[in-house]
Automatic annotation (TrEMBL):
Similarity comment: family membership: Belongs to the 'GDXG' lipolytic enzyme family.
Name of this protein: Carboxylesterase
Pfam family, one: Abhydrolase_3
Residues covered by the Alpha/beta hydrolase fold-3 domain: 73-131
Length: 156
């Protein structure tokens, strides 16, 4: 009979890694930050990678004409390839602000997180998010990220 797996690493109770290689990820739902939506931009959730169930948020100014606005890909950070999501309020607020202030279309993709998915999974997802975009063919494209997301910009 084998022994029970021992806790090897505990990251604030959000991610727990065990000696047998298994891990536990809790949902992070309690944020002290609220979404600051002034109504100047709209967003929608779009599937961009069916195989890995990865989505993007697509942000656009409500007042935008049919002009071909620049596109800004924004890659979130917040946890060394282990934490973060385009849906977190801090990321969502930042993308709303970018879209509004810079008059751009903002695309904020999620990517697979460690330890469930080892590198280069996140890098592959970032590259695929940019590659799969039909917008990139006829608009100015900018790529931006913070923390871990800035690392991903090097591979997209």
């Amino acid at each position: 009979m084998g022994s029970l797996a021992q806790l090897v690493e505990d990251c604030l109770g959000i991610i727990k890694v065990y000696s047998d290689g298994s891990n536990f990820r809790s949902e992070v739902n309690d944020f002290p930050i609220k979404v600051q939506d002034d109504g100047s931009a709209t967003w929608k959730d779009c599937l961009f990678n069916k195989k890995h169930n990865l989505y993007i948020y697509l942000y656009q100014l409500l007042s935008a004409s049919n002009a071909k606005l620049p596109i800004l890909y924004f890659f979130h950070g917040s946890g060394g390839f282990c934490l973060g999501s385009r849906t977190w309020p801090n990321c969502h607020n930042y993308c709303l602000c970018l879209s509004s202030v810079l008059s751009t279309v903002v695309i904020s993709p999620d990517y697979r997180l460690a330890p469930e998915h080892r590198l280069p999974a996140a890098m592959d997802d970032a590259l695929n998010a940019v590659k799969c975009s039909k917008f990139r063919l006829y608009r100015t494209v900018l790529i931006h990220g913070y923390l871990t997301g800035s690392t991903l910009t090097r591979f997209s």
